[in-house]
Every structure is written in C-alpha cells, then in structure tokens.
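Input for the complex:
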Amino acid sequence: MSVRLDAPRAAWADRRPPAAARRLVSRVGTFCLVELQKLRHDRSEVVTRLIQPILWLVVFGQTFTRLRAIPSGNVPYLDYLSAGIIAQSALFVSIFYGIQIIWERDAGVLTKLLVTPTPRAALVTGKAFAAGIRSLAQAVAILVVALLLGVRYTANPLKLLGVLVVVLLGAAFFCCLSVTIAGLVLKRDRLMGIGQAIMMPLFFASNALYPVSVMPGWLQAISAVNPLSYEVSALRGLLLGTPTTLWLDFAVLSLTALAAIGAASALLGRLAR
Amino acid sequence: MAAGPDLGTVPAIDVHGLTQRFGEHVAVDDVDLTVAAGECFGLLGPNGAGKTTTIRLLVTLLPVQTGQVRIFGLDVRRKAMAVRRLMGYVPQQLSVEGALTGRENVTWFARLFDVPRRERTARVDEVLAMMDLTDAADRLAATYSGGMVRRLELAQALVNRPALLVLDEPTVGLDPVARDSVWTRVGELQSQYGTTVLLTTHYMEEADALCDRVALMHHGSVRALGAPDELKAALGPQASLEDVFRHWTGDQLAGEEKGGLRSVRTTRRTAGRMG
Ligand SMILES: Nc1ncnc2c1ncn2[C@@H]1O[C@H](COP(=O)(O)OP(=O)(O)OP(=O)(O)O)[C@@H](O)[C@H]1O
Ligand SMILES: [Mg+2]
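Predicted:
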C-alpha cells in the first residue's frame, strides 16, 4: 500500500498564515464544531444534566409559586425562577470546563493543542464558546420544559437573540474563571473541591432564586459584584420584560468575560509545564 | 509579508547551549544539536535522560530559559507560531479525543493548522488511508486499540504536511507488527518527501535501522553523537547500537536502574528469538 502525500515543501510555499482576527474566528468556530460533535456522540449528557434544573423548576418552582413566599413582582414565581435556572445551569456546565482542561492536560490532548498554531487566547476563547454552546443546549431544553409548565416568554426575535448572547457571555465568564483556577491549582481534585466550594455561593449570592431586595445587606453587596446576578437580570428583562438596566448587564458580562479570558490565557501555559 | 522559512539550506533544528532546570534539577544540560533538513535523527538515552524535556523545548511547549533553539532558522522564542506551523508532534503519552471519531480527530487538527477548506476532506482522507485507518475512521477513538491510537496521532501530526516531524517514543506499547508499520511509514515520509524526523525510542535496533544520525543523552547532556555505524565502529567490529548505548550510559547508571535496563535487554533478546 502506498498512498502518496505531496511534498511538504511545496505545500508550505503556498501557505500563508491567516491574519490574527481571521485565525481567532476560525479557531473559535473549530472549537464550537468539536463541541457539537462531542454533543452529538453523547446526547445522554444533555438529558442527565437536565434533571437538576427540572427538579428546581418542578419542585422548588411550583411549590414556591403556590406559597407566594418570594416576591417576584408582576410575573409568576415560576417564570421568575426559570430565568435564574437557565443561568444556574449555564454556570454548572461552564464551571466544568476547568476540570475538563485539566483532564485534557492529563490525557495529553492539551499538549498537542498547544503545539498547533493556536494562540493561547484563541484556545481559551474557543473553550469559552464551547461552554457557551453546551450552555445554550441546556438553556433551550430548560425553556422548552418551562413552556410546557406554562411559563410565558417573549416571542421577540431580537430579545431572544439577546438571550443567546447573554448565555454565551455568562458561560464564557464562568468557563474562563474555572480555567483560571485550573491554571492556579493545576490538580483536578483540588479544582473539583474549589469548584464545589464556589458554585453554590455564586448561585445563592445572586438573584437567581429571589430578588435582591429580600436579601440581607451583606448578601446584596456580594450579589452586586456577582456576574451571575447581571446574567439573571438580563435574562429576566429579555424573556419576561422585568425591569433591568440592560446596557449595564451587557457591559458587566462583556467586561468580566474579557477579563476572565485574559486571565485564563495568561495562566494556560502553566498547565503544560 | 515576511518570506517563509528556508526549508532547504538552513538546518531543520539548530540548538545551542540549551539548558533546562526544574528547581535544582538540571534536566537538559548545555545541549548542542544540529539536524539537517531531510535527516532522520534519533534522540536516545535511558529513562530520565532528558529526551522528552529537550523535545518539549523544541516544540515550544516549554519556554526556552537558557540557550538558543532555531527551527528552520526561526527562533522558537520569537517565532513560536511560525515554528508550530512547520511541525507535526506526537507526544510520548497516547492522546486523542476519545469522544470524537478518528476522522473528527484528524479534521480538528486540519482546521487548527489552517488546512484550506477545499483541500481539507481530501487531506484528511489521505492521511487516514496512509495510516490504514480508513475503515475505522468513523468509529469513536475511545474504541481504538493502542496501535490504532498511535497511528491516528501520526495522521493528526501529518495532516498539515509538516516539514519537521517530532515523535516522542511513537512505538511504545505497540506490538512488533504495529511497531513495524509505524516505522515503515515514518521511513517512507522521510525518503519520499524529505520530511525531517526527530524521534526518540528505546528500541535500539529500530533506531539503528531508521536514523541517519543519533545522539546519546545521559543525565541531560549529549554523550555521543554520530551515524549509528560510526558509533558502532568506534566501539568494535561486532558492536551493536545497544552496546554503544550501554557504553555511554550503562556504566554510570545507579544499581537499580542498571538492573532495570538489563532485564529489558533480556526480555528483548527472548522476544527476538521467538520472533
Ligand atoms: N515538569 C517537570 N518538573 C520537574 N522535573 C521534571 C519535569 N519534567 C521532567 N523532569 C525531570 O527531568 C528529567 C528528564 O526527564 P525527561 O522526561 O526529559 O526524560 P526522558 O529522557 O524523556 O525519559 P523517558 O525515557 O523515561 O521518557 C527527569 O529526571 C524528570 O524527573
Ligand atoms: Mg520521555
């Protein structure tokens, strides 16, 4: 058997490196595609990851809607909660990416990725968008379940597009936050510990379950610097029309996502040493 | 646009005074190496000699602290991205994405190496065929045997038609037939397309058969360097590359490691008789 390759030298001659911006777009596209392929091969994961958010919606949501214990303004509590659960689900999915990158390091895949002509920032951005893809898959599934439970959302395509962007930005932040921590602690079990330790506080110190107004002062202060709160506010504003300062939400989410991408890119090399 | 690197006249690999410390430990100690374009070069040495560390420095995984590394004339410190475009790398550890199929694994790398879209499918098919993986291409890589994973990794490393192929123990853990097929393919690449190959292996006979030149590393430094025949002739008319290996590294080994080495040799002899 003799399959012939063309001479590598000739191949090199017509190959120019793409411009940085094009390369970034291409890499992000590649990582998203790979994520979709992985999802396609293991669809059960979307389903198993749906169990928890559905429990929140069905058990917690329906119960507290009846109790009327949590003031949710002029929307039913279940509607109010569903936006928080979308954000929570994206958080849980994205925090996993730090663990995944350590796993990839241990499996040697990261090593090979780092030897391709892919700048660290493009690799991290690619991962961030990959987390976004998974988060979106979760979000769509949760929206469908919520619709079945009788929740009413906007049908405005522009607002739905906004929801998509918000979920992507939130996922990018939490994904890169966990990759940053991975770059600091370098060990999977330590990261799992830290991930568990910050996931729940991030969730409870946000407006995902209850409005900021019912929180004690110290918790309000934490919620004010918690990107998850801005994500939830934006999702509620877009999906349900509750009052929020959308430009502020988008600004906070964009800036924190950018900062986290920067931090994660800077620390990524540590994982390869 | 700067001109591409010169793939003909400058050495493929040019290393000067390369030193790598991990804390107090000197893993690579003032190494000088030059590998000509088109050459097949073997980095040999006992466990812990510093082969993998040297390779990690060459492929831009570890930042070069002391010394200089040029790949086709490009300084790895300043031109890392250009250097990576020229290389295919198979690390010591078996590593593919098990949750993707073989074809998806290769296509992934074709994209990461900016293989033009219109050529991509053909190129992926080509390297899969070259590695005898066409039939298994659409199975998840998690279901592959060790030998298939290695061949898949070679396919990934070849999809950008590298000018320099870096292989860190490409045949470890493979059965003799699979080892043979890997080496045959590497040999083909080198002879047919002028690909420069840098490899490490613990199989001396294979290094002897395949490499134009070898360097024997021990405790981080290069102890002997030359064509296998030269190194053997310097030792005696009957000497094998294994004897050369033992001569340059064996005497200085700690007792425990020595035992390990000897037992490896005995096993290999036995295997040789049975084969
Ligand atoms: N990241 C690291 N931190 C600390 N020490 C390291 C690191 N990587 C390698 N070393 C040390 O450097 C030395 C050389 O290791 P290296 O992996 O380069 O050897 P090798 O020649 O590839 O061995 P083998 O044949 O077993 O693969 C070893 O003593 C190893 O313990
Ligand atoms: Mg090694």
